[in-house]
Amino acid sequence: MSKEPMIVLTTPEERNQLQGLPVIVAHMAYSVGAGAVLLRAQSARSLGGGYLVLNSSRYDGTGRAETFCQQVVQECQYRRFQGIVCDFEGGRLPPLEKIIHMLGEQCANRGWNLLVSEQYGHSSPHAIVMIPSAISGGTLEARLQEAQQEFGQNRIALALQRTAEDFYLPAPNGRGITLSQQELKQKIETRNPSIFFSHEFCARYFTYMSQETGAHFVLFDDPVTMQKKVELAARLGITTVLAAWQDIADATRELGLFSTRKTQVLR
């Protein structure tokens, strides 16, 4: 399989930082509003080409899916978008499932890509399902293979995430405390730990002891671990990768995103 350009999620204010990179720019400027109305950031007026990214944080579960999908398709046609990313979080909502099903039909008819969050992966047979790269149990390879078995070999995208978590040991629920990059850096500088690479997680880790809270396990990503995750996905035949610009801005060399003379925002 040939490698597809990486899909990079960015705000309208950040998009100029991607000038010259061989990527598909996915514009984080749209949301499903109350009553199923398409909401646009004011800065969306200057956008053109790439993908439209939808979030659902402001949706109230009401409105007509047909009208909303018509608004999205019209916006894509006007802005010359060639794909849609439904970055919906939280529990599955039947109205959003209907929206995804209808957008899947619209995208298939126009040759556009539709990418959806994992919980909505069964809402449209035409959708590509985004599988997060961050795990805290099992192996990333098994996680991706299970997703391929559930949704289809060619319907999986790697949602590349840059994470850092501090786990109290033992961690029976597999959940840690999220660390910012600055907090991670300070913890490494303060404790000067031995850092190892986990082939199961495709991430780096270290351990330390605290007099107050006992044993800790810190799992984190850096440019090299994100490169390893993309390489693993490629070995499994997964050619669609997306990531937020803020997660990969310092990893363009490792990810093979070398600057060109002209920005590529379309496939």
SSE blueprint:
Elements: E1 6-10, E2 23-33, E3 37-40, E4 51-55, H1 65-79, E5 83-86, H2 94-110, E6 113-117, E7 128-132, H3 140-151, E8 156-160, E9 164-168, E10 177-178, H4 181-191, E11 196-198, E12 203-210, E13 214-220, H5 223-235, E14 240-244, H6 245-248
Parallel strand pairs: 1-2, 1-14, 2-4, 4-5, 5-6, 6-7, 7-8, 8-14
Antiparallel strand pairs: 2-3, 9-10, 9-13, 11-12, 12-13
Helix pairs in contact: 1-2
How many strands? Answer: 14
Distance between the termini: 15 Å
CATH-level-2 architecture of the largest domain: Alpha-Beta Barrel
CATH superfamily of the largest domain: Glycosidases
Protein architecture, described:
With 267 residues, the chain is of the alpha/beta class. It folds into two domains: 6-162 and 221-248, Glycosidases (TIM Barrel), CATH 3.20.20; 166-218, Chitinase A, domain 3, CATH 3.10.50.10. 27% of the residues lie in helices and 28% in strands. It has six helices and 14 strands. The strands form two sheets. An eight-stranded parallel β-barrel has the order 1-2-4-5-6-7-8-14. Strands 10-9-13-12-11 form a five-stranded antiparallel β-sheet. A hairpin with an 8-residue loop joins strand 9 (164-168) and strand 10. Helix 1 (65-79) packs parallel to helix 2 (94-110). The protein is globular, with a radius of gyration of 19 Å. The model is unreliable at 262-267 (pLDDT under 50).
